[in-house]
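Much of the work behind modern protein science is quiet bookkeeping, done one molecule at a time. The protein below has been through that process, and both of its lines are reproduced in full.
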Amino acid sequence: MFKVINWVVVSRSQLLIDLLETRWPQEFLVKLAKVTPESVEVTMSEGNYSLVVIDLATIDVQRAYQVQKQIEKRHSARVVFLHYPKQIDARFLISPITAAVFYGDASLEQIGKALANVLRGQTVIPHTLLSASADQEQLDGADNLTIREREVLQALLTGSTNVDIANQLFVSESTIKTHLYRVFRKIGVSSRGQAIAWAQTHLHEVQQ
């Protein structure tokens, strides 16, 4: 007898959830739990889930990063990203528990075939992302913050929003988000508050 496995779908799109409900339960013999980012931890703690599917079309990448970190620390599930963005640098999302990454133009059929391989223990991540992620890991390994990242950290201490920081540094808000994601990973935090707390203690070490 086949054993039904449990997956979590993190999305704010009812349409996507309805589409997945019509295919995946029969295709993979899975039971889907549909949740928002805010309720992932509660859902995960109440059951035995092996895969968490995060819809990046409706979930901010910073929040997705935080969700994946929670799962990595407290659960044994793997993570799949749908609608992975091509227009921003989101390589910080690739971690040891990332099972698969799909761009927005991937069809449900393509995703289904790839997930069948994930169920066999494989990892399905575009080669370009894997090689880029490896390069980034080497750069981050030294835990050295760039001058711009230090400026962003300093601005965080003043209570500035991403828009404020972007205006101060004459760059776009998305560029500031990218800097923050890299800073978070380098200093080992997962939230703005933790980054501020870290900077209050260590900022003298990162100023030039």
The mean pLDDT is 85. The longest strand covers residues 78-84.
